[in-house]
Structure prediction request, 324 residues.
Amino acid sequence: MVTRRRLLACAALSPVLLRTHAWGADAWPQRQVRIVVPFAAGGNTDGIARVIGQNLSTSLGAPFVIENKPGADGAIAAEAVKVATADGYTLFMAALPQIAIFPAMTKVSYDPVKDFAPISNVGSNPFALVVHPSFPAANLQELVAYVRAKPGEITFASGGTGSLGHLSMVLFAKRAGLEMTHVPYKGGGPAIADVIAGHVPIYFANLSEALPQVKGGTLRAMAVSSDARTRQLPDVPTVAESGYPGFHTVTWNGLMAPAATPKPIVNLLSEAVAKAVKDAAVTDKLLGYGVEPVGDDPEHFAATIATDIATWGEAIKLAGVTLQ
Prediction:
C-alpha cells in the first residue's frame, strides 16, 4: 500500500516517482524512449529533436534516441507513431505539415487530431519574405506597389506546390490584392538558390534557411511573418506592422504521442520540455536554427493545432491545391 508518508518521501527524492506512483504504474521512463522524426538526419526537425532528446535523457534519466523515418512527406513517420503502443516510449517530433497541411491535400491513414496526443510545441519558425538584392523595393509597402503595378508579371519561388512558403505567399497575395506567378521547386534548397542567382525575385523562406543569406547580403529581408520581430533579425519588421495587421504564418516542431498515451506521462514530458527550452544551451542551439523556443503545455499546443488546421486549410483552397 502506498501511504501518504511514502508519497511525500518519494516527492523529496524524485518528482517522477511521485507522479508515477500516484497513478498506479511503474516509474516512467524505465527504458529507452524513441523520438520518431519524419525527415532524414541533418535538417531542422532532426536537429531540434536531437537537442531536446539529449536534454530529456539527462532530466528524465533514460535515453531518448532519434529514429529518422523519412518518406511520403512525413506520413510514414506519422503512421508509425499512430500504431505504436501508447506507453510513452514512442514519441513523434511532428512538423506542422504532417498535422495541418498534408491531411488537407492528400489522403493519409491517420487523423491529425484524433490519433495523436499533443505534448508540447518545442519551437516555432516564422517565414521571411526575401528578395534578390537588385529588387527595386526598399520595404514591403514598396514591394506591394511594384507588384500591384505589374499584375501577373512578377514571379515568386517556393519549395513546391503546397509548401508552407507557397501557401504563406498565397495568403499574403490575397490580403494585399496581388497577382503573382508561382514558380515551384523541388525543395527549399533549389528555390533559394535561384532567388540568390536572380532568376526569381521573391521567396517566402523559412527563417532558418533565410538567416545566413540575409546576414551574408545575398538576399534582403522585407518582412517576417510572426506576430513580433525575431531575435535573429530585430531590424526587419513584421508583415503585420508593415500594413497588414493580423497577418501571421509560422511553422513549428512539437512533441506528440499516440492518442491513448497516459495523461500523467504527457504532462510529465510537457513540463520537462518547458524546462528544457529555458536552458541556455538549448535556447542557443534553437535560436541558431532560426527557431524561437516555445515549450507550451498540451492544451495550448492543441489550440495552436486547431488554429493552424483552419488557417492552412484556407490557404490550400485559395491556392487551388486539390485533394489527391
User: Anything to note?
Assistant: Residues 121 and 254 are 4 Å apart (CA to CA). The first helix runs from residue 4 to 13. The beta strands are 33-37, 64-68, 90-95, 116-131, 155-158, 181-184, 202-206, 220-224, 250-258, 292-293.
